[in-house]
Hints:
The structure holds 2 protein chains of 2 kinds. By secondary structure, chain A is mainly α. Chain A has 9 helices and 4 strands; from the N terminus they run αβαβαββαααααα. Chain A has helices at about 5, 25-35, 50-55, 95-120, 125-130, 140-155, 160-170, 175-185, 195-200, and strands spanning about 15-20, 40-45, 60-65, 70-75. Chain A has a two-stranded parallel sheet. In chain A, α6 packs antiparallel against α7 and α7 (about 160-170) runs antiparallel to α8. The two termini of chain A are about 20 Å apart. Chain B is globular. In chain B, the strands form 4 sheets. Chain B has a 4-stranded mixed sheet with strand order 2-1-10-9. Chain B has helices at about 25-30, 60-65, 85-95; strands spanning about 1-5, 10-15, 20, 35, 40, 45, 55, 55-60, 70-75, 80, 100-105, 110, 120-125. Chain B is α+β, with helices and mostly antiparallel strands. β3 of chain A pairs antiparallel with β13 of chain B.
Amino acid sequence: MWEDLQTCVFDAPFVVIAVAEEGRGAEQARPWIEKARPSYPCLIDENHVVSALYGMVNVPQCVWIDERGVIVRPPETAGSTDHFRKMDLTTRTLAPELLAERNAARTAYLNAVRTWIRTGKHALPGDEARARLPVITPEMAMADALFRLALHLRRHGREAEAAEHFAEASRLHPESWCIFRDAQALEPSGLAGGQAFWERVNALGDKPYYPPPVL
Amino acid sequence: MATVLTDTGTHDVPTPGGLLLTPDDTERVTGWTLKPEGMCQAELCVPLTQAMKHGDRIDAAAFWRHLGNPVASDRAGETWVLGTGPDQRNQALTGLQAPDFALPDLNGKMHRLSDYRGQKVFLTTWASW
Lengths: 215, 129
């Protein structure tokens, strides 16, 4: 959906950089990228380097960076919503009114990005941007180290030992869906959306899976 | 031989056990240099404690933890991750200067975030899973 942003002509120079957080490597992302044929850079991040650097915990999340390389909006949900939690799991479809709500939220977010590109609106003052930054704790830092170790071990065929480190990483950083989901076995569809995922989503209760961005 | 994964890359280093490295290998892996006053990087020097010295080798894992950084290893002690601690990571973010990184595209071409300076950047993550 970012292609619409990239192909608009704006007065200000602008680029989308999409980073695939793919612990199983580039080939997992290849069919999606080749199908989308993006005109913007689409990068492969086998070690979740970007998530760690920016304190991101889910996908899609985004950061807005101005021309000086300054973060003007820290990590936030990039246009996705929690409507999927009300999906009919048999048909994997949303009721029309929910679909409309979801699409409206996505459009509103894309419009906010377009407005920022054109006018600078929605860029946060430094203090407010700083206040919205994630705070990395020692537990999160250790979780990231264990996750990287587990990814390396999985790539080298040591799945059983990797699973122990994945589990400990997820225990130390339970808010990270990136750690939890990339550690899961994939379904035939390629998604990590099995029973464990839904149990964890349902355990959120009233908490959002995709916290809505505050624009 | 041990494989050490750091933010700067993957390093294969000889070790008699644990992560006991020569001063040269410690420098290669950690970026810190052994000097008479301790381990040094730029103007900063950190004294080595007795527990970090093993003859002419340095316990790089103990030194790394001493700096406040996370260390993880496999059961066999053959694969190590020397991560970046929370203080350094939070400090990097609170400056609001976007942390730089370099990653490949599908064709292996490397892209560095800072190459796009001068443009507004919408940096977004996604995944197939």
